[in-house]
Design goal:
Layout: H1 2-13, H2 16-23, H3 29-37, H4 56-68, H5 75-84, E1 97-100, E2 104-105, E3 111-116, E4 124-129, E5 132-137, E6 142-145, E7 154-158, H6 172-203, E8 205-206, E9 209-210, H7 215-238, H8 248-273, H9 284-296, H10 301-313, H11 320-326
Parallel strand pairs: 1-4
Antiparallel strand pairs: 2-3, 3-7, 4-5, 6-7, 8-9
Helix pairs in contact: 1-3, 1-4, 4-6, 5-6, 6-7, 6-8, 6-9, 7-8, 8-9, 8-10
Length: about 325
C-alpha cells in the first residue's frame, strides 16, 4: 500500500524535467514537501510514536523506487535517520537529514565528512564518528561540492565549536544503513536503465529490423538482465533481517554485489544506445551518472568484498555455499 502511494507521488513530482531543474539549481521543495506532508518520512518510526512501524523488508521496495526515479532529495536517508535515532530521545527532525557513514575527527576537534550524499542541500547530517552517533547542523558546516555535474554530494567540515555531544555508541548503524540505501538505489536505477535499454533496442531499426533481434545485442541484453536480477536480490538481502537496521554482513554482500555490477550495466547500456545515450536531452545519463556515484558511496565493492571475505575465512567449518546461505542471517554477522 505504501509503495504504491509513494510511487504515485514520484511519478507525478519526480519527472526527468524536475530532476534536471534541480540539478541546475532549482528548488527541491515540491518533491520534499509532497513526501513530508504525506507522513512518509515516518515509515520506520514505531506506531506508538506516530509512525507506520514498517519492517526493513517492507521498506526495501520503497527505497528501490527512489533509485528507479533518481530522487534528487535525501528521502531514504531521512527515513533511515529516524530509525537510527530511535533510542536517543530525539523525536523530531526538521528539514532534510542525510547520513554520513564515515567522518574524520581532526586533532583540533573539527570534523570532516567526505562525499556526503545530498551534502550540498541537506539541513542536518546524522554521522558516524569513530562509532559514536552525532547529529550535526549542516548550516554550520563549510561545504565543498563533489564537482560532478548535477551532483548534490559534497564534503562537509565543522569547526570544533559546531560539533555536538554524542547521542550514542551506535554510529556504525549509520554506515550500514547508508550503504544498504545505496545498494537499493543502485538496484532500482539498474532496473530503470535496463528497461530503457530494452525498449530502445526494440524500437531502433537497422537493416530493416529492430536491433534487439540481432543475436549479439540479445546476448548483451541477457547479461544485463542477469546482473539486474542479481542486484535486486542482493538489495533485498540487506533488508531481510529482523533488526531495526540492516545487518553488517548482509549489507556488505548487498553493497559489494550491486556496486560490482555498475560498470557493466552502465557501459552496456551506453554501448547499445550509441551516441544518443550521452546527450543531455536523453534520460539515460540521469541514471548512469548516479550509478557511478552510488557505486563508490560508502565504499566500493573492493571495500565491502574484503569484509565478506574476512567473514567467510573466519568460519572453520562448512562450504562457501553454506556460508552464502546462512551467514547473512546470523545475528552475530
Amino acid at each position: 500500500m505504501f509503495t504504491e502511494a509513494i510511487e504515485a507521488i514520484l511519478r507525478d513530482r519526480v519527472t526527468s524535467e524536475a530532476v534536471r531543474a534541480i540539478e541546475n539549481g532549482g528548488s527541491v521543495e515540491s518533491i520534499w514537501s509532497a513526501i513530508e506532508e504525506a507522513g512518509f518520512l515516518e515509515l520506520l518510526t514505531p506506531e506508538s510514536a506516530g509512525g507506520a512501524g514498517l519492517s526493513l523488508s517492507a521498506i526495501e521496495p520503497i527505497l528501490t523506487a527512489f533509485g528507479r526515479h533518481a530522487v534528487p532529495v535525501p528521502l531514504a536517508q531521512s527515513i533511515a535517520a529516524r530509525a537510527v535515532l530511535r533510542d536517543t530521545g530525539v523525536t523530531a527532525l526538521a528539514g532534510m537529514t542525510t547520513l554520513a557513514g564515515t567522518c574524520r575527527r581532526h586533532a583540533d576537534g573539527s570534523l570532516e565528512a567526505p562525499q556526503v550524499p545530498f551534502g550540498m542541500i541537506c539541513d542536518q547530517v546524522l554521522a558516524n564518528v569513530d562509532g559514536n552517533l552525532l547529529l550535526l547542523d549542516a548550516t554550520r558546516a563549510g561545504r565543498e561540492p563533489a564537482g560532478v555535474h548535477g551532483s548534490s554530494c559534497g564534503t562537509l567540515r565543522w569547526l570544533a565549536d559546531a560539533v555536538p555531544a554524542s547521542l550514542g555508541s551506535n554510529g556504525d548503524e549509520v554506515l550500514r544503513f547508508s550503504a544498504a540505501i545505496h545498494a537499493a538505489a543502485i538496484a532500482g536505477a539498474m532496473d530503470r536503465v535496463f528497461a530503457m535499454t530494452l525498449q530502445y533496442c526494440n524500437d531502433r531499426s537497422q537493416f530493416g529490423k529492430s536491433i534487439g533481434k540481432f543475436q549479439a545485442v540479445q546476448h548483451q541484453l541477457s547479461v544485463m538482465a542477469q546482473h539486474v536480477a542479481s542486484a535486486g536480490m542482493a538489495s533485498a538481502l540487506a533488508f531481510c533481517g529482523p533488526g531495526a537496521v540492516p545487518g553488517r554482513l548482509a549489507t556488505a554482500i548487498a553493497k559489494a554485489r550491486t556496486s560490482m555490477a555498475v560498470p557493466l550495466i552502465a557501459s552496456t547500456a551506453h554501448a547499445l544506445h550509441g551516441a544518443i545515450g550521452v546527450t543531455a536531452e536523453y534520460d539515460l545519463q540521469l541514471y548512469t551518472r548516479r550509478l557511478h556515484e552510488w557505486r563508490i558511496a560508502d565504499g566500493s565493492e573492493t571495500f565491502w568484498n574484503r569484509m565478506v571475505g574476512s567473514a567467510a575465512l573466519a568460519r572453520e567449518h562448512g562450504t562457501i555455499v553454506d556460508f552464502a546461505r546462512t551467514a547473512p542471517y546470523d545475528v552475530a554477522a
